[in-house]
Design a protein that fits this description.
9% helix; 43% strand; globular; 508 residues; two-stranded antiparallel ribbon; Porin; mainly beta; 18-stranded antiparallel barrel
């Protein structure tokens, strides 16, 4: 099965069904690791990737997650951060006729969504948090009762040629080389309805190979209504109601280039725009704004469009001889006024991630994989002289860079930082590993609210995972402990959260 998946991935056959981003059977993990052994033809920075060309019933998956004390977890698509028990179920089918293919894979999520300790600081410590609440749609809790959603999930209708594909989809997407976070596009939020035009294999030219994807679609609000009492400071209500229902037009493009003269190197650039549908114009540059200059002084009417935008550049370099890859992504939440501005203040509104992955091959099909990644979302010291606000929020779109209440990019959220160390022992039928992470929550808020160093909210996550393939069934388990210090920025508020995930996937 694994050999068949990998063969189709490398040959980039068309009309293929896809491996959903973050699929719990570790298919993506094995494919990426194999690139470090055999060499990379595809960048692996535009996902989902192809699975097989054979029409069939798609795998059926049930995944159950449990958080003991606090909501925890990201990069889980249709699921939400919730305390208590949460269950995810998906199944479907794939069929094709000539160049036309249809993949139907709906998703059902049911979360117990228990109550938990939320943000409680008052007065001057509460005011900076209210600024974030008023300019993003990231609820602490998704309502006050059981959460149930049925979505189209990883469903797509495509018309493909040997080189490119056009279609309509609600699939989750991932752009960029990170494995734990991505600055612009990840599977942290539920997939959104979008049109897509993309390459289906690297397009060769005399300069090298190119891959690309354009999407244009609709983002939705969470529907969670804020409690006005939560916005009170010294008897004044600072709640600023957001537009209802919060539907937004979203369009983005990513292009990846593999230089002909440097094997294994992939260079990428991504750019995204989002605005309320009520503010959307009808001109070409309104629907396809990617060709506009990056310098604000060259687009003097841009503020009148009332749209927010982000951009990033990335690099991934694979060294098969060393069974190693290094990668990084740098992004900006705000554009510069001019080229001189780029030169003087490159760090303004910047976030970044970088990482390294290494395979230690023991025998065919058996190896150890080491991965390290660092993500920094907090604002730089440039904020002292030129405030730009946290990532994923800006002036015009008051729901922020979100879909259905979750960030489209890095799941750790605005202002947060994460360091990840992960080791996996991979065998043909099993994967076993452990992870250690340091998670610093919303440092942008912390520096706005506090003048001391002791109240930082920082978690240490540690845990293990195991996956076993038995003929047509794949079983997976994860157990993660989070030692939380100064939970919700309250001094000496220490908690230990336990997260258990169990999943079973049945192939047909």
């Amino acid at each position: 099965m694994l050999k068949r998946i990998f063969f189709f991935f490398l040959s980039a056959q068309i009309y293929a069904q896809t491996i959903p981003v973050g699929f719990p059977d570790y298919s993506e993990e094995r494919l990426r690791n194999q690139q470090l052994i055999s060499g990379a033809r595809n960048s692996f920075t535009i996902r989902p990737v192809a699975d097989t060309t054979q029409p069939r019933i798609l795998p059926m998956t049930i995944l159950t997650s449990y958080n003991s004390l606090v909501p925890m977890g990201w990069n889980d698509g249709a699921m939400i951060p919730a305390r208590g028990l949460q269950t995810y179920f998906t199944a479907g089918f794939f069929t094709k006729y000539k160049g036309l293919s249809l993949q139907v894979k709906p998703e059902l999520v049911v979360a117990e969504n228990k109550d938990f300790e939320t943000f409680s600081l008052q007065g001057a410590l509460r005011a900076p948090m209210i600024v974030l609440w008023n300019s993003t749609d990231i609820p602490e809790r998704f309502g006050t009762s059981t959460y149930t959603r049925l979505r189209l999930g990883q469903t797509a209708l495509r018309l493909s040629s040997p080189s490119v594909s056009v279609g309509i989809s609600t699939e989750n997407l991932w752009w960029g080389p990170g494995f734990r976070n991505s600055l612009l596009m990840s599977n942290n939020a539920p997939g959104f309805l979008h049109g897509t035009f993309n390459s289906v294999k690297p397009l060769k030219t005399f300069l090298g190979s190119f891959e690309f994807q354009w999407v244009g679609g609709r983002l939705e609000g969470s529907g969670v209504q804020p409690d006005p009492n939560e916005y009170m400071v010294d008897g004044i209500n600072y709640l600023e109601p957001k537009p209802v229902p919060g539907t937004r037009y979203f369009t983005a493009i990513t292009v990846n280039y593999q230089p002909r003269w440097i094997p294994g190197l992939f260079l990428g650039v991504s750019r995204s725009f989002h605005l309320y549908t009520s503010d959307l114009g009808s001109g070409f540059s309104d629907i396809f704004p990617f060709f506009l200059p990056l310098e604000k002084k060259r687009v003097p009417l841009e503020d009148g469009k009332r749209r927010d935008q982000l951009a990033s550049v990335s690099a991934r370099w694979v060294f098969p001889a060393s069974q190693l890859e290094i990668y990084g992504e740098v992004g900006w939440n705000d554009y510069k006024n001019s080229l001189i501005d780029w030169y003087l203040s490159l760090e303004h509104s910047r976030a970044y991630l970088y990482g390294i992955r290494k395979v230690f091959l023991q025998s065919p099909g058996k190896y150890v994989r080491l991965a390290l990644e660092n993500t920094a979302m907090e604002m730089t010291a440039d904020r002292i002289v030129r405030n730009n606000g946290p990532w994923y929020r800006h002036d015009f779109v008051r729901h922020g860079y979100t879909n259905e209440g979750q960030v489209l990019g890095a799941g750790i959220g605005p202002g947060s930082n994460l360091q990840t160390f992960d080791v996996a022992f991979v065998r043909p039928a099993t994967i076993a590993g452990f992870t250690i992470e340091r998670y610093a929550h919303n440092m942008d808020y912390y520096y706005d609210a506090f003048k001391t160093w002791e109240s930082k909210w920082v978690d240490i996550h540690f845990g293990g995972y195991y996956q076993r393939r038995m003929k047509q069934v794949v079983l997976s388990a994860k157990l993660n402990f989070a030692l939380i210090r100064n939970y919700q920025w309250v001094m000496e508020n220490v908690k230990l959260n336990t997260q258990l995930q169990l999943s079973a996937t049945r192939y047909f």
